[in-house]
Amino acid sequence: IGCKEEQKAEVSEVQDKSPNVLIIYPDQLRRYSAGFWSEAKYREYTIGKPDPVETPNMDRLAKNGVVFSNAISNFPLCSPARGMFLTGRFPEQNGIWNNCRVGREESLHDDLPAITDIFYEAGYNTAYFGKCHWLKNDPLFDKDGNYVGSNQHPGGHHTHRFDTYIPPGKSRHSIEYFYQSLTKNTHYDPVVFSSDPHAIMGKKDGEIHQVKAFSAKDESEKIISYLNNHNKVRDPNKPFFIMWATYPPHNPWDDENTDMGILEKYYGLDRFPELDSLVVRDNADLEVAKYARHYFAIVTSVDFYIGSVIRELEKMGELDNTIVILSSDHGEMLGSHGRKGKNTLKTEALGIPFIIHWPNGLKGGEINDMLFGVPDVLPTTLSLAGLKKSIPDNLEGMDFSSSLLTTQNMDFQEPQGILIILRNAKGIHTKRYTLCIEENKELWETKQVAELNGAYLYDNQSDPYQQEKIPLDQKPEIARSLLGLLGQELKRSNDPWYQERKYSGVIIYD
Predict the structure, then answer these.
(1) CA angle 214, 216, 218 (to 5 degrees)
(2) Which of 390, 323, 495 minimizes the C-alpha distance to 113?
(3) Is 449 left (phi over 0), alpha (psi -120 to 50) or beta?
(4) DSSP strands (E only) in 293-336
(5) How confident is the model at residue 313, as a pLDDT?
(6) Are the C-beta atoms of 288 and 339 separated by less than 8 Å?
(7) Strand partners, 68
(8) Closest Cα partner for 95 from 84, 79, 109?
(9) First and final CA of the chain: distance in angstroms?
(10) In this structure, are residues 92 and 496 in contact, taking their beta carbons and an 8 Å threshold?
(11) What Cα–Cα distance (Å) separates residue 267 from each residue in 39, 54, 145, 474?
């Protein structure tokens, strides 16, 4: 990756003032649902065809930043991905093996340092806006959804089946300014909890507040207010760390949850009279993908509000010294293989955007094709901000900053493959192949004795839409190499399969 001549391996030698950090984290944003992928410079880095989506603000970040073309969500599911993102550690260490929801024990470990903790300890203002989804969902609310902190009357109720309020304390991981949106499967009627009474009509932290607006719009307005320090909510002499985790473009995808003006303007029948002119992938089931117009319209809406925040940073004179990262927790199948959603070891669920925009520190318009995973975000971001010494020991994530800040770095070794996992499946994703080892899911979910359901490869170069499963014995040398790498990565992540040496007749453990 190219760089300016004055750049050094350590960012702190370049900057007198610590850079701000803004992480933008839309839920369920496909890697290729951005307009810049259709341009010649980026087109050669795509697997299959990019989506015909209008995203001028994401495009601006990409063209003036560094695009990771092989970024992968190691566990393509909301809560597990967030646990890895926040801690730089895989599920066995961070505590989240499934989506946090009523009836499950999954919860991010309070004692693990999260990225917000580390930036706070380094002297940053810390703020969080949007979806959280990392805490065990206990019945600690009254019947109206207000937090009371007890399951005894008036407590004993849940405020949301799939997500819950993060109260002050260790579970909030040093977030000073807190604005949490619980969307309850709607984009235009979220409920909010906040540490700022000015933002929620004078209510207290833990009292439920209803917002009648598109959640990304509402959050963008609150972020702009925070940036401008209305009501003196931050120390203007400190740099800021902001994470913005907007719920859309996650489902629902329907007229009620979509800006229909945007849908008609960009994705209407006049521009795309047939769905197959909009859903351009060879593996897509058009009947399943009939929500594509709504999905793309919501992506474009989110992009608009991303633009409003970026323009405010520019207006304030802070954009050049702000590390802006755009990513997502996982992709979206959008009808591929007859599926919607995520939670599968297919490229369209695994593939995520990852863009770093920082004019003061990185040369813009670059493409980094190294394999990059979710646990790598924490150490890479800290190092870019000059906080390399603050990176916790024994992380599974790798620090990629030296691959960005120097033209040649003999010490940095690019990973040859990325560990990909589900509750009942493991694999390795490389630049060309995807190895999948799957258990019988029905037996796993009913806690019966698991059995191997499939072991196969995809050749993503010759078969970009993953329509042909290749038996391991058809490519024995490649399979053996990847099975050995899988064993190493399961050991490094302390995965339960490694602890039990599961399927040792197939996976090559040391």
Answers:
(1) 70
(2) 390
(3) beta
(4) 322-326
(5) 98
(6) yes
(7) 368
(8) 109
(9) 35
(10) yes
(11) 19, 9, 38, 43
Q: Given the DSSP bridges, would you call strands 177-182 and 125-130 parallel, antiparallel or unpaired?
A: parallel
Close Cβ partners of 473 (under 8 Å, ≥ 6 residues apart) = 479
Q: Nearest-CA neighbor of 177 among 168, 187, 186, 190?
A: 168
Nearest to 429 by CA among 371, 510, 367, 492: 371
pLDDT digits (tens, 9 = 90+) for 169-213: 999 999 999 999 997 789 999 999 999 999 999 999 999 999 999
Q: Is the dihedral of CA 187, 188, 192, 197 positive or negative?
A: positive
- CB-CB contact of 156 with 177 (8 Å): no
Is there a contact between 55 and 63 (Cβ–Cβ < 8 Å)? no
Buried-state track 241-261, b at ≥16 Cβ within 10 A, e below 16: bbbbbbbbbbbbbeeebbbee
The length of the chain is 510
Residues ≥6 apart with Cβ < 8 Å to 264: none
Q: Is the pLDDT of residue 289 over 50?
A: yes
Tokens of 6: 């004055």
Task: Write the pLDDT tens digit of every residue in 223-261.
Answer: 999 999 999 999 999 999 999 999 999 999 999 999 999
pLDDT of residue 405 exceeding 80, the answer is: no
Interatomic CA distance for residues 355 and 376, integer angstroms: 13
pLDDT score at 450? 67
Alpha-carbon gap, residue 299 to 42, rounded angstroms: 19
Structure-token match 């405020």, residue found: 159
Beta strands in 41-195 (DSSP E): 66-72, 125-130, 177-182, 191-194
What would the two tokens of residue 106 be? 């999954």
Burial 69-99 (b: 16+ CB within 10 A, else e): bbbbbbbbbbbbbbbbbbbbbbbbbbbbbbb
Instruction: Return left, alpha or beta for 146; rule: phi > 0 is left, psi -120 to 50 is alpha, else beta.
Output: beta
Q: Which two tokens stand for residue 327?
A: 């990513």
**Neighbouring residues of 44: CB distance < 8 A, sequence distance ≥ 6:** none
C-alpha dihedral, 270 to 276 to 277 to 280, nearest 10°? 150
| Nearest one of 3, 502, 52, 509 to 272, comparing CA atoms | 52
User: 200, exposed or middle or buried, with CB in 10 Å at 0-12, 13-18, 19+?
Assistant: buried
Cis ω for the linkage preceding 113 (within 30 of 0): no
